[in-house]
Amino acid sequence: MSSAALVAIGEPMLEFNQQPDTAGDGRRLYLEGFGGDTANAAVAAARQGVKVAYLTALGHDAAGARFLDLWQREGIDVTGVRQSDERPTAVYFVTHGPHGHEFLYYRRDSAASFYGPEDVDAALVGGAKILHASGISQGISSRAADAVFHAIGLARAAGVRVAYDTNFRPRLWPAARAAAVIHAAIAQADIALPSLDDATMLTGLADPDAIADFYLRLGPAVVVVKLGAEGALLATPERRVRIPARSCRFVDATGAGDTFAGSFLARLILGDAPEAAARYATAAAALKCEGFGAVAPIPFASQVEAALCD
Question: Are 201 and 175 a contacting pair, CB within 8 Å?
Answer without folding.
Answer: yes
